[in-house]
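Form 12-C: Joint structure prediction
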Amino acid sequence: MDNKAKKVFKDKLKGFEAPVADNLWASIDAGVNGSAPSAIARWKWAGIVLLLFTFIGVGYLILDGSQEKEILNDFEPREVESTPPAPVEIPDGQQEHAVRDKVQADNMDLKNSIDQSAVKVADLSAGQNLAPKIVSDEPILEQQVSTIRESEEALTSNEVSQVSEIRKIPELPFSPPYWEIDGPELHKLALKDSVAGEAEQTSRSITFKWHGVLTFNYLNITPNKQDDVFFNPLSSGFNFSLDRIGFRPGIEMLIPINDKLSFKNDFLVSFRRYNIAFDFINDASQTENAFERFTNTYSQISVGLATGLRYQLTMLNQRKLDLDLGISFEQLLSNQLRDEGLLDSPNQQFNLNIGLSLYPKKAQRLKWVIRPFGYFSLNQKASAAPANLTPYGFGIQFSRNR
Amino acid sequence: MQDLTDLIDQCIEGDRKAQRALYEYLKGRLMGICRRYNPSQEDSNDIFQESMVRLFKNLDKAREASDFDAWTSRIAINVSIDAYKRRKKNEMVALEESEVWEFSADDLSALEQMKAEDIVTLLHELPENQMVTFNMFIDGYSHKEIAGELKIAESTSRTLLTRAKKRMVVLLSKRELGESAYGQ
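Section 2 - Result
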Protein backbone atom coordinates (compact mmCIF):
# COMPACT_ATOMS: atom_id res chain seq x y z
CA MET A 1 0.00 0.00 0.00
CA ASP A 2 1.33 3.42 -0.82
CA ASN A 3 2.28 5.62 2.10
CA LYS A 4 -0.42 8.17 1.47
CA ALA A 5 -3.21 5.62 1.68
CA LYS A 6 -1.63 4.06 4.73
CA LYS A 7 -1.47 7.46 6.41
CA VAL A 8 -5.12 8.18 5.62
CA PHE A 9 -6.22 4.96 7.26
CA LYS A 10 -3.86 5.40 10.22
CA ASP A 11 -5.08 8.91 10.89
CA LYS A 12 -8.67 7.87 10.61
CA LEU A 13 -8.40 4.79 12.78
CA LYS A 14 -5.79 5.91 15.32
CA GLY A 15 -8.23 7.37 17.79
CA PHE A 16 -11.14 5.15 16.94
CA GLU A 17 -13.11 4.30 20.04
CA ALA A 18 -15.97 1.84 20.19
CA PRO A 19 -18.68 1.74 22.85
CA VAL A 20 -18.21 -0.78 25.65
CA ALA A 21 -21.07 -2.60 27.34
CA ASP A 22 -21.43 -1.81 31.05
CA ASN A 23 -21.46 -5.41 32.17
CA LEU A 24 -17.98 -6.20 30.87
CA TRP A 25 -16.16 -4.70 33.82
CA ALA A 26 -17.61 -7.26 36.22
CA SER A 27 -16.10 -10.12 34.21
CA ILE A 28 -12.76 -8.37 33.87
CA ASP A 29 -12.68 -7.53 37.57
CA ALA A 30 -13.39 -11.17 38.40
CA GLY A 31 -10.73 -12.27 35.92
CA VAL A 32 -8.12 -9.97 37.42
CA ASN A 33 -8.93 -10.13 41.14
CA GLY A 34 -10.76 -13.37 41.61
CA SER A 35 -11.73 -16.46 39.80
CA ALA A 36 -12.88 -15.62 36.34
CA PRO A 37 -16.50 -16.44 35.70
CA SER A 38 -16.58 -19.48 33.53
CA ALA A 39 -17.87 -18.96 30.05
CA ILE A 40 -20.79 -21.25 30.66
CA ALA A 41 -23.54 -18.67 30.61
CA ARG A 42 -24.83 -20.19 27.42
CA TRP A 43 -24.94 -23.57 29.08
CA LYS A 44 -27.11 -22.36 31.90
CA TRP A 45 -30.42 -22.65 30.19
CA ALA A 46 -29.48 -25.99 28.64
CA GLY A 47 -28.52 -27.24 32.10
CA ILE A 48 -31.76 -25.94 33.56
CA VAL A 49 -33.81 -27.71 30.91
CA LEU A 50 -31.89 -30.93 31.44
CA LEU A 51 -32.20 -30.72 35.22
CA LEU A 52 -35.88 -30.00 34.87
CA PHE A 53 -36.36 -33.11 32.80
CA THR A 54 -34.23 -35.11 35.21
CA PHE A 55 -36.07 -33.90 38.30
CA ILE A 56 -39.46 -34.45 36.72
CA GLY A 57 -38.35 -37.92 35.76
CA VAL A 58 -36.85 -38.79 39.12
CA GLY A 59 -39.80 -37.26 40.95
CA TYR A 60 -42.20 -39.26 38.88
CA LEU A 61 -40.15 -42.37 39.46
CA ILE A 62 -40.13 -41.89 43.23
CA LEU A 63 -43.87 -41.18 43.39
CA ASP A 64 -44.64 -44.03 41.08
CA GLY A 65 -42.35 -46.37 42.99
CA SER A 66 -43.94 -45.59 46.36
CA GLN A 67 -47.44 -46.14 44.99
CA GLU A 68 -46.38 -49.46 43.57
CA LYS A 69 -44.85 -50.46 46.89
CA GLU A 70 -48.10 -49.67 48.67
CA ILE A 71 -50.05 -51.82 46.27
CA LEU A 72 -47.64 -54.70 46.68
CA ASN A 73 -47.79 -54.41 50.47
CA ASP A 74 -51.55 -54.71 50.25
CA PHE A 75 -51.40 -57.84 48.18
CA GLU A 76 -48.33 -59.66 49.40
CA PRO A 77 -48.90 -62.42 51.94
CA ARG A 78 -47.79 -61.57 55.44
CA GLU A 79 -44.81 -63.61 56.41
CA VAL A 80 -44.87 -65.34 59.81
CA GLU A 81 -42.76 -63.27 62.11
CA SER A 82 -39.75 -65.28 63.14
CA THR A 83 -38.59 -63.32 66.15
CA PRO A 84 -36.69 -65.78 68.30
CA PRO A 85 -38.36 -66.28 71.67
CA ALA A 86 -36.51 -65.43 74.83
CA PRO A 87 -34.12 -68.15 76.02
CA VAL A 88 -35.68 -70.57 78.47
CA GLU A 89 -33.66 -72.46 81.02
CA ILE A 90 -34.28 -76.20 80.64
CA PRO A 91 -32.82 -78.64 83.20
CA ASP A 92 -30.50 -81.35 81.82
CA GLY A 93 -32.23 -84.59 80.88
CA GLN A 94 -35.57 -82.90 80.17
CA GLN A 95 -34.57 -81.43 76.85
CA GLU A 96 -36.44 -83.76 74.54
CA HIS A 97 -39.48 -83.80 76.81
CA ALA A 98 -39.68 -80.02 76.89
CA VAL A 99 -39.31 -79.68 73.14
CA ARG A 100 -41.89 -82.38 72.53
CA ASP A 101 -44.38 -80.56 74.80
CA LYS A 102 -43.74 -77.29 73.04
CA VAL A 103 -44.10 -78.78 69.56
CA GLN A 104 -47.29 -80.54 70.63
CA ALA A 105 -48.78 -77.27 71.83
CA ASP A 106 -47.73 -75.45 68.68
CA ASN A 107 -49.01 -78.19 66.51
CA MET A 108 -52.41 -78.04 68.12
CA ASP A 109 -52.56 -74.39 67.09
CA LEU A 110 -51.43 -75.28 63.58
CA LYS A 111 -53.98 -78.06 63.30
CA ASN A 112 -56.78 -75.73 64.43
CA SER A 113 -55.59 -73.22 61.86
CA ILE A 114 -55.62 -75.84 59.12
CA ASP A 115 -59.11 -76.93 60.14
CA GLN A 116 -60.31 -73.33 59.97
CA SER A 117 -58.73 -72.92 56.52
CA ALA A 118 -60.37 -76.08 55.33
CA VAL A 119 -63.75 -74.82 56.50
CA LYS A 120 -63.15 -71.49 54.81
CA VAL A 121 -62.16 -73.10 51.54
CA ALA A 122 -65.14 -75.40 51.76
CA ASP A 123 -67.43 -72.38 52.23
CA LEU A 124 -65.90 -70.53 49.31
CA SER A 125 -66.05 -73.53 47.03
CA ALA A 126 -69.83 -73.19 47.20
CA GLY A 127 -70.66 -76.69 46.36
CA GLN A 128 -67.49 -77.59 44.54
CA ASN A 129 -65.94 -80.82 45.68
CA LEU A 130 -62.72 -79.48 47.08
CA ALA A 131 -61.32 -81.62 49.87
CA PRO A 132 -58.09 -80.52 51.55
CA LYS A 133 -55.17 -82.67 50.43
CA ILE A 134 -52.72 -84.01 53.01
CA VAL A 135 -49.19 -84.07 51.66
CA SER A 136 -47.96 -86.98 53.77
CA ASP A 137 -49.63 -89.82 55.60
CA GLU A 138 -47.24 -89.42 58.52
CA PRO A 139 -48.73 -87.29 61.31
CA ILE A 140 -47.33 -83.76 61.34
CA LEU A 141 -46.16 -84.10 64.95
CA GLU A 142 -44.12 -87.19 64.07
CA GLN A 143 -42.53 -85.43 61.09
CA GLN A 144 -41.44 -82.58 63.31
CA VAL A 145 -40.10 -84.71 66.13
CA SER A 146 -38.10 -86.85 63.74
CA THR A 147 -36.56 -83.73 62.32
CA ILE A 148 -35.67 -82.55 65.81
CA ARG A 149 -33.94 -85.82 66.47
CA GLU A 150 -31.92 -85.52 63.25
CA SER A 151 -30.71 -82.13 64.33
CA GLU A 152 -30.33 -83.03 67.97
CA GLU A 153 -26.60 -82.43 67.86
CA ALA A 154 -27.31 -78.83 67.10
CA LEU A 155 -29.34 -78.50 70.30
CA THR A 156 -26.34 -78.36 72.55
CA SER A 157 -27.44 -75.12 74.11
CA ASN A 158 -30.61 -74.80 76.11
CA GLU A 159 -31.95 -72.07 73.92
CA VAL A 160 -35.45 -72.85 72.79
CA SER A 161 -34.85 -70.54 69.84
CA GLN A 162 -34.39 -73.77 67.89
CA VAL A 163 -38.11 -74.32 68.32
CA SER A 164 -38.80 -71.46 65.96
CA GLU A 165 -36.97 -73.45 63.28
CA ILE A 166 -39.30 -76.32 63.93
CA ARG A 167 -42.26 -74.16 62.96
CA LYS A 168 -40.74 -73.67 59.54
CA ILE A 169 -40.12 -77.33 58.84
CA PRO A 170 -43.58 -78.53 57.81
CA GLU A 171 -44.85 -77.30 54.50
CA LEU A 172 -48.48 -76.45 54.14
CA PRO A 173 -50.25 -79.81 54.24
CA PHE A 174 -52.31 -78.94 51.15
CA SER A 175 -52.10 -76.55 48.23
CA PRO A 176 -55.49 -74.94 47.72
CA PRO A 177 -56.03 -74.23 44.02
CA TYR A 178 -57.53 -70.86 44.88
CA TRP A 179 -57.08 -69.39 41.40
CA GLU A 180 -59.77 -71.73 40.16
CA ILE A 181 -62.29 -70.83 42.82
CA ASP A 182 -64.92 -68.27 42.11
CA GLY A 183 -64.84 -66.20 45.27
CA PRO A 184 -64.10 -62.52 45.91
CA GLU A 185 -61.34 -63.07 48.44
CA LEU A 186 -59.47 -65.56 46.36
CA HIS A 187 -59.83 -63.45 43.24
CA LYS A 188 -57.86 -60.88 45.14
CA LEU A 189 -55.15 -63.44 45.81
CA ALA A 190 -54.97 -64.27 42.13
CA LEU A 191 -54.67 -60.58 41.28
CA LYS A 192 -51.92 -60.26 43.83
CA ASP A 193 -49.78 -62.81 42.03
CA SER A 194 -50.35 -61.22 38.67
CA VAL A 195 -49.40 -57.71 39.85
CA ALA A 196 -46.37 -58.86 41.77
CA GLY A 197 -45.12 -60.83 38.81
CA GLU A 198 -45.52 -57.92 36.44
CA ALA A 199 -43.79 -55.57 38.81
CA GLU A 200 -40.91 -57.96 39.04
CA GLN A 201 -40.56 -58.07 35.29
CA THR A 202 -40.64 -54.28 34.88
CA SER A 203 -37.45 -52.54 35.90
CA ARG A 204 -38.27 -49.06 37.19
CA SER A 205 -34.79 -47.76 37.90
CA ILE A 206 -32.68 -45.10 36.21
CA THR A 207 -30.23 -46.75 33.86
CA PHE A 208 -27.00 -45.44 32.41
CA LYS A 209 -25.58 -46.77 29.19
CA TRP A 210 -22.38 -45.96 27.38
CA HIS A 211 -22.68 -45.79 23.67
CA GLY A 212 -20.63 -45.23 20.58
CA VAL A 213 -21.97 -43.52 17.53
CA LEU A 214 -20.90 -43.20 13.94
CA THR A 215 -22.29 -40.16 12.20
CA PHE A 216 -22.37 -39.12 8.59
CA ASN A 217 -22.61 -35.40 8.32
CA TYR A 218 -24.03 -33.19 5.66
CA LEU A 219 -23.64 -29.46 5.54
CA ASN A 220 -26.28 -27.04 4.54
CA ILE A 221 -24.93 -23.90 2.95
CA THR A 222 -27.05 -20.79 3.31
CA PRO A 223 -25.59 -18.15 1.01
CA ASN A 224 -25.60 -14.63 2.30
CA LYS A 225 -27.48 -12.75 -0.39
CA GLN A 226 -26.08 -9.45 0.77
CA ASP A 227 -22.60 -10.59 -0.15
CA ASP A 228 -20.90 -10.35 -3.51
CA VAL A 229 -19.54 -13.86 -3.41
CA PHE A 230 -21.27 -16.15 -5.88
CA PHE A 231 -21.22 -19.88 -5.31
CA ASN A 232 -21.47 -22.13 -8.28
CA PRO A 233 -24.53 -24.30 -7.62
CA LEU A 234 -23.24 -26.84 -10.11
CA SER A 235 -19.94 -27.38 -8.33
CA SER A 236 -19.46 -30.69 -6.60
CA GLY A 237 -19.81 -30.48 -2.87
CA PHE A 238 -21.76 -27.24 -2.93
CA ASN A 239 -24.59 -28.73 -1.03
CA PHE A 240 -22.74 -31.08 1.22
CA SER A 241 -19.33 -32.00 2.42
CA LEU A 242 -17.36 -34.93 1.10
CA ASP A 243 -15.54 -36.62 3.98
CA ARG A 244 -18.49 -36.40 6.21
CA ILE A 245 -17.82 -38.66 9.08
CA GLY A 246 -17.93 -38.33 12.79
CA PHE A 247 -17.65 -40.20 16.05
CA ARG A 248 -19.84 -39.43 19.02
CA PRO A 249 -19.32 -41.35 22.24
CA GLY A 250 -21.62 -40.56 25.11
CA ILE A 251 -23.55 -41.74 28.10
CA GLU A 252 -27.30 -42.13 28.10
CA MET A 253 -29.49 -41.77 31.16
CA LEU A 254 -32.94 -43.31 30.94
CA ILE A 255 -35.63 -42.45 33.46
CA PRO A 256 -38.68 -44.66 33.05
CA ILE A 257 -42.07 -43.00 33.28
CA ASN A 258 -44.10 -46.08 32.65
CA ASP A 259 -43.60 -49.40 30.93
CA LYS A 260 -43.39 -47.77 27.52
CA LEU A 261 -42.31 -44.19 28.00
CA SER A 262 -39.00 -42.89 29.35
CA PHE A 263 -37.12 -39.66 29.66
CA LYS A 264 -33.90 -39.91 27.76
CA ASN A 265 -30.92 -37.71 28.53
CA ASP A 266 -27.71 -38.01 26.64
CA PHE A 267 -24.34 -36.50 27.48
CA LEU A 268 -22.17 -36.57 24.42
CA VAL A 269 -18.86 -35.59 22.91
CA SER A 270 -18.78 -35.20 19.17
CA PHE A 271 -15.93 -35.27 16.69
CA ARG A 272 -16.87 -34.34 13.14
CA ARG A 273 -14.82 -33.96 10.03
CA TYR A 274 -15.74 -32.28 6.79
CA ASN A 275 -14.06 -31.85 3.47
CA ILE A 276 -15.53 -28.97 1.59
CA ALA A 277 -15.04 -28.23 -2.07
CA PHE A 278 -16.86 -25.79 -4.29
CA ASP A 279 -16.39 -23.17 -6.97
CA PHE A 280 -17.04 -19.54 -6.33
CA ILE A 281 -16.56 -16.05 -7.67
CA ASN A 282 -15.27 -13.66 -5.07
CA ASP A 283 -16.96 -10.65 -6.54
CA ALA A 284 -19.98 -11.42 -8.65
CA SER A 285 -20.24 -7.83 -9.85
CA GLN A 286 -17.09 -8.34 -11.92
CA THR A 287 -18.43 -10.72 -14.52
CA GLU A 288 -15.07 -11.29 -16.12
CA ASN A 289 -13.94 -13.20 -13.01
CA ALA A 290 -13.65 -16.94 -13.44
CA PHE A 291 -14.65 -19.38 -10.76
CA GLU A 292 -12.04 -20.13 -8.15
CA ARG A 293 -11.83 -23.56 -6.61
CA PHE A 294 -12.09 -23.73 -2.86
CA THR A 295 -11.21 -26.93 -1.07
CA ASN A 296 -10.33 -27.61 2.53
CA THR A 297 -10.78 -30.03 5.38
CA TYR A 298 -12.17 -29.01 8.74
CA SER A 299 -12.81 -30.61 12.09
CA GLN A 300 -15.21 -29.81 14.86
CA ILE A 301 -15.16 -30.94 18.47
CA SER A 302 -18.16 -30.34 20.65
CA VAL A 303 -19.76 -31.36 23.89
CA GLY A 304 -23.48 -31.51 24.26
CA LEU A 305 -26.63 -32.48 26.03
CA ALA A 306 -29.57 -34.15 24.39
CA THR A 307 -32.88 -34.60 26.06
CA GLY A 308 -36.15 -36.05 24.97
CA LEU A 309 -38.63 -38.87 25.25
CA ARG A 310 -38.40 -42.50 24.28
CA TYR A 311 -41.45 -44.56 23.52
CA GLN A 312 -41.74 -48.28 22.97
CA LEU A 313 -43.38 -48.55 19.58
CA THR A 314 -43.84 -52.24 19.03
CA MET A 315 -42.24 -55.66 19.13
CA LEU A 316 -40.55 -56.66 15.92
CA ASN A 317 -39.69 -60.32 15.57
CA GLN A 318 -39.32 -60.59 19.38
CA ARG A 319 -37.23 -57.44 19.43
CA LYS A 320 -38.35 -54.29 21.17
CA LEU A 321 -38.51 -51.24 18.91
CA ASP A 322 -38.35 -47.78 20.51
CA LEU A 323 -38.84 -44.35 18.99
CA ASP A 324 -37.13 -41.35 20.49
CA LEU A 325 -37.54 -37.68 19.81
CA GLY A 326 -35.67 -34.83 21.42
CA ILE A 327 -33.58 -31.72 21.16
CA SER A 328 -29.90 -31.29 21.75
CA PHE A 329 -27.59 -28.42 22.48
CA GLU A 330 -23.97 -28.53 21.43
CA GLN A 331 -21.20 -26.16 22.36
CA LEU A 332 -18.35 -26.35 19.91
CA LEU A 333 -15.00 -26.37 21.65
CA SER A 334 -13.13 -26.32 18.39
CA ASN A 335 -14.73 -25.21 15.17
CA GLN A 336 -12.43 -24.86 12.22
CA LEU A 337 -15.40 -24.02 10.04
CA ARG A 338 -16.09 -20.85 11.88
CA ASP A 339 -15.48 -17.75 9.90
CA GLU A 340 -13.13 -18.99 7.28
CA GLY A 341 -13.61 -15.72 5.47
CA LEU A 342 -15.93 -17.32 2.99
CA LEU A 343 -17.71 -19.61 5.40
CA ASP A 344 -19.18 -19.30 8.83
CA SER A 345 -20.60 -21.84 11.19
CA PRO A 346 -22.35 -21.27 14.53
CA ASN A 347 -20.46 -22.18 17.69
CA GLN A 348 -23.65 -23.16 19.48
CA GLN A 349 -25.87 -25.62 17.76
CA PHE A 350 -29.43 -26.62 18.51
CA ASN A 351 -30.51 -29.81 16.85
CA LEU A 352 -33.65 -31.83 16.56
CA ASN A 353 -33.00 -35.55 16.98
CA ILE A 354 -35.08 -38.55 16.01
CA GLY A 355 -34.09 -42.17 16.37
CA LEU A 356 -35.25 -45.76 16.42
CA SER A 357 -33.73 -48.27 18.84
CA LEU A 358 -33.84 -51.93 17.99
CA TYR A 359 -33.21 -54.24 20.95
CA PRO A 360 -31.86 -57.76 20.72
CA LYS A 361 -33.91 -60.86 21.39
CA LYS A 362 -33.72 -62.00 25.00
CA ALA A 363 -31.85 -65.16 24.16
CA GLN A 364 -29.43 -63.47 21.80
CA ARG A 365 -25.76 -63.80 22.70
CA LEU A 366 -24.54 -60.46 21.39
CA LYS A 367 -26.83 -58.02 23.13
CA TRP A 368 -26.29 -54.87 21.13
CA VAL A 369 -28.87 -52.17 20.82
CA ILE A 370 -28.73 -50.55 17.40
CA ARG A 371 -30.14 -47.10 16.95
CA PRO A 372 -30.27 -45.45 13.56
CA PHE A 373 -30.96 -41.76 14.01
CA GLY A 374 -31.10 -38.44 12.25
CA TYR A 375 -30.50 -34.90 13.37
CA PHE A 376 -30.74 -31.50 11.84
CA SER A 377 -29.82 -28.06 12.92
CA LEU A 378 -32.48 -25.69 14.19
CA ASN A 379 -30.31 -22.60 14.15
CA GLN A 380 -29.77 -21.88 10.52
CA LYS A 381 -29.29 -18.24 9.80
CA ALA A 382 -27.65 -15.90 7.39
CA SER A 383 -24.21 -14.97 8.58
CA ALA A 384 -21.88 -12.04 8.12
CA ALA A 385 -19.70 -14.30 5.98
CA PRO A 386 -20.69 -15.11 2.39
CA ALA A 387 -22.12 -18.45 3.52
CA ASN A 388 -23.39 -19.95 6.71
CA LEU A 389 -22.91 -23.67 7.28
CA THR A 390 -25.12 -25.77 9.48
CA PRO A 391 -24.98 -29.52 9.76
CA TYR A 392 -27.49 -32.18 9.01
CA GLY A 393 -26.66 -35.73 9.71
CA PHE A 394 -27.63 -39.26 10.25
CA GLY A 395 -25.85 -42.04 11.98
CA ILE A 396 -25.97 -45.29 13.78
CA GLN A 397 -25.52 -45.78 17.49
CA PHE A 398 -24.39 -48.92 19.24
CA SER A 399 -24.79 -49.71 22.90
CA ARG A 400 -24.76 -52.87 24.96
CA ASN A 401 -28.11 -53.96 26.26
CA ARG A 402 -28.32 -54.73 29.96
CA MET B 1 -6.93 12.37 36.07
CA GLN B 2 -4.21 10.91 38.24
CA ASP B 3 -0.71 10.59 36.97
CA LEU B 4 -0.66 7.45 34.81
CA THR B 5 2.44 5.97 36.48
CA ASP B 6 0.85 6.26 39.95
CA LEU B 7 -2.34 4.76 38.64
CA ILE B 8 -0.45 1.80 37.19
CA ASP B 9 1.38 1.31 40.50
CA GLN B 10 -1.88 1.30 42.42
CA CYS B 11 -3.33 -1.18 39.98
CA ILE B 12 -0.34 -3.46 40.48
CA GLU B 13 -0.94 -3.26 44.26
CA GLY B 14 -4.48 -4.49 43.67
CA ASP B 15 -6.38 -1.26 44.26
CA ARG B 16 -9.73 -1.92 42.60
CA LYS B 17 -10.68 1.73 42.31
CA ALA B 18 -7.45 2.40 40.43
CA GLN B 19 -8.08 -0.61 38.22
CA ARG B 20 -11.53 0.70 37.39
CA ALA B 21 -10.09 4.14 36.60
CA LEU B 22 -7.48 2.65 34.28
CA TYR B 23 -10.17 0.54 32.65
CA GLU B 24 -12.30 3.62 32.02
CA TYR B 25 -9.29 5.34 30.50
CA LEU B 26 -8.46 2.49 28.13
CA LYS B 27 -11.75 0.84 27.30
CA GLY B 28 -12.94 2.88 24.31
CA ARG B 29 -9.67 2.75 22.42
CA LEU B 30 -9.01 -0.93 23.09
CA MET B 31 -12.55 -1.88 22.17
CA GLY B 32 -12.00 0.13 18.98
CA ILE B 33 -9.06 -2.12 18.10
CA CYS B 34 -11.04 -5.25 18.96
CA ARG B 35 -13.93 -4.11 16.78
CA ARG B 36 -11.58 -3.38 13.88
CA TYR B 37 -10.30 -6.94 13.96
CA ASN B 38 -13.63 -8.62 14.63
CA PRO B 39 -16.82 -8.12 12.68
CA SER B 40 -18.81 -9.82 15.43
CA GLN B 41 -19.67 -7.74 18.48
CA GLU B 42 -19.79 -10.88 20.60
CA ASP B 43 -16.28 -11.93 19.58
CA SER B 44 -15.09 -8.37 20.11
CA ASN B 45 -16.42 -8.42 23.66
CA ASP B 46 -14.64 -11.71 24.39
CA ILE B 47 -11.38 -10.44 22.93
CA PHE B 48 -11.72 -7.14 24.75
CA GLN B 49 -12.18 -8.94 28.07
CA GLU B 50 -9.23 -11.21 27.40
CA SER B 51 -7.09 -8.21 26.42
CA MET B 52 -8.02 -6.30 29.57
CA VAL B 53 -7.33 -9.27 31.85
CA ARG B 54 -4.00 -9.90 30.14
CA LEU B 55 -3.18 -6.21 30.40
CA PHE B 56 -3.89 -6.02 34.14
CA LYS B 57 -1.99 -9.21 34.83
CA ASN B 58 1.09 -7.90 32.99
CA LEU B 59 0.98 -4.34 34.23
CA ASP B 60 4.41 -4.64 35.85
CA LYS B 61 5.86 -4.99 32.36
CA ALA B 62 4.20 -1.72 31.36
CA ARG B 63 6.74 0.14 33.47
CA GLU B 64 9.43 -0.95 31.05
CA ALA B 65 7.42 0.19 28.03
CA SER B 66 8.33 3.62 26.71
CA ASP B 67 4.82 4.25 25.33
CA PHE B 68 2.03 2.90 27.54
CA ASP B 69 -0.71 3.51 24.97
CA ALA B 70 1.22 1.67 22.27
CA TRP B 71 1.89 -1.17 24.72
CA THR B 72 -1.82 -1.53 25.53
CA SER B 73 -2.75 -1.33 21.85
CA ARG B 74 -0.25 -4.05 21.06
CA ILE B 75 -1.87 -6.33 23.64
CA ALA B 76 -5.33 -5.85 22.09
CA ILE B 77 -3.90 -6.40 18.59
CA ASN B 78 -2.05 -9.55 19.68
CA VAL B 79 -5.11 -11.01 21.39
CA SER B 80 -7.18 -10.22 18.29
CA ILE B 81 -4.64 -11.91 16.02
CA ASP B 82 -4.45 -14.94 18.34
CA ALA B 83 -8.24 -15.24 18.32
CA TYR B 84 -8.25 -15.03 14.55
CA LYS B 85 -5.58 -17.73 14.34
CA ARG B 86 -7.57 -19.99 16.67
CA ARG B 87 -10.63 -19.56 14.53
CA LYS B 88 -8.75 -20.16 11.36
CA LYS B 89 -6.19 -22.90 11.67
CA ASN B 90 -6.42 -23.98 8.04
CA GLU B 91 -5.51 -21.07 5.87
CA MET B 92 -7.43 -20.75 2.65
CA VAL B 93 -5.57 -21.74 -0.48
CA ALA B 94 -3.19 -18.96 -1.36
CA LEU B 95 -4.02 -17.07 -4.51
CA GLU B 96 -1.16 -15.27 -6.15
CA GLU B 97 -1.77 -11.86 -7.64
CA SER B 98 1.26 -10.28 -9.20
CA GLU B 99 -0.53 -7.06 -10.00
CA VAL B 100 0.27 -4.09 -7.76
CA TRP B 101 -2.85 -2.19 -7.05
CA GLU B 102 -3.23 1.16 -5.29
CA PHE B 103 -6.01 3.51 -4.27
CA SER B 104 -6.66 6.35 -6.63
CA ALA B 105 -6.65 9.97 -5.48
CA ASP B 106 -10.46 9.99 -5.65
CA ASP B 107 -10.67 6.90 -3.47
CA LEU B 108 -8.41 8.47 -0.86
CA SER B 109 -10.36 11.67 -0.95
CA ALA B 110 -13.55 9.70 -0.35
CA LEU B 111 -11.90 7.85 2.52
CA GLU B 112 -10.72 11.08 4.12
CA GLN B 113 -14.27 12.32 4.22
CA MET B 114 -15.56 9.20 5.91
CA LYS B 115 -15.98 8.78 9.64
CA ALA B 116 -13.81 6.21 11.45
CA GLU B 117 -16.92 4.13 12.25
CA ASP B 118 -17.79 3.95 8.55
CA ILE B 119 -14.28 2.84 7.64
CA VAL B 120 -14.50 0.11 10.29
CA THR B 121 -17.86 -0.95 8.84
CA LEU B 122 -16.20 -1.08 5.44
CA LEU B 123 -13.42 -3.26 6.86
CA HIS B 124 -15.99 -5.64 8.32
CA GLU B 125 -17.36 -6.22 4.86
CA LEU B 126 -14.09 -7.76 3.76
CA PRO B 127 -13.41 -11.48 4.07
CA GLU B 128 -11.80 -11.93 7.46
CA ASN B 129 -8.35 -12.92 6.23
CA GLN B 130 -8.24 -9.75 4.11
CA MET B 131 -9.57 -7.64 6.95
CA VAL B 132 -6.99 -8.92 9.43
CA THR B 133 -4.14 -8.50 6.96
CA PHE B 134 -5.31 -5.00 6.15
CA ASN B 135 -5.60 -4.06 9.83
CA MET B 136 -2.18 -5.46 10.63
CA PHE B 137 -0.69 -3.48 7.79
CA ILE B 138 -2.32 -0.30 9.09
CA ASP B 139 -1.04 -1.15 12.57
CA GLY B 140 2.53 -1.15 11.26
CA TYR B 141 3.24 -4.80 10.52
CA SER B 142 5.35 -5.53 7.46
CA HIS B 143 4.35 -8.32 5.07
CA LYS B 144 7.13 -10.42 6.53
CA GLU B 145 5.74 -9.92 10.04
CA ILE B 146 2.17 -10.56 8.92
CA ALA B 147 3.28 -13.75 7.18
CA GLY B 148 5.14 -14.85 10.32
CA GLU B 149 2.21 -14.09 12.64
CA LEU B 150 -0.49 -15.65 10.49
CA LYS B 151 1.71 -18.55 9.30
CA ILE B 152 1.14 -17.74 5.66
CA ALA B 153 3.50 -16.99 2.79
CA GLU B 154 4.65 -13.43 2.37
CA SER B 155 3.18 -13.46 -1.13
CA THR B 156 -0.17 -14.47 0.36
CA SER B 157 -0.04 -11.48 2.66
CA ARG B 158 0.55 -9.21 -0.34
CA THR B 159 -2.25 -10.87 -2.26
CA LEU B 160 -4.67 -10.52 0.61
CA LEU B 161 -3.81 -6.85 1.00
CA THR B 162 -4.30 -6.21 -2.72
CA ARG B 163 -7.61 -8.04 -2.64
CA ALA B 164 -8.69 -6.07 0.40
CA LYS B 165 -7.92 -2.79 -1.32
CA LYS B 166 -9.74 -3.81 -4.49
CA ARG B 167 -12.74 -4.89 -2.52
CA MET B 168 -12.76 -1.69 -0.50
CA VAL B 169 -12.81 0.40 -3.63
CA VAL B 170 -15.76 -1.61 -4.93
CA LEU B 171 -17.53 -1.16 -1.61
CA LEU B 172 -16.67 2.55 -1.63
CA SER B 173 -18.10 3.04 -5.08
CA LYS B 174 -21.25 1.15 -4.10
CA ARG B 175 -21.54 3.34 -1.04
CA GLU B 176 -21.13 6.49 -3.11
CA LEU B 177 -23.72 5.26 -5.58
CA GLY B 178 -26.08 4.54 -2.74
CA GLU B 179 -25.54 7.97 -1.26
CA SER B 180 -26.07 9.75 -4.57
CA ALA B 181 -29.21 7.70 -5.20
CA TYR B 182 -30.40 8.66 -1.73
CA GLY B 183 -29.57 12.33 -2.51
CA GLN B 184 -31.73 12.31 -5.61
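Section 3 - Comments
The two ends of chain B are 48 Å apart (CA to CA). The mean pLDDT of chain B is 83.
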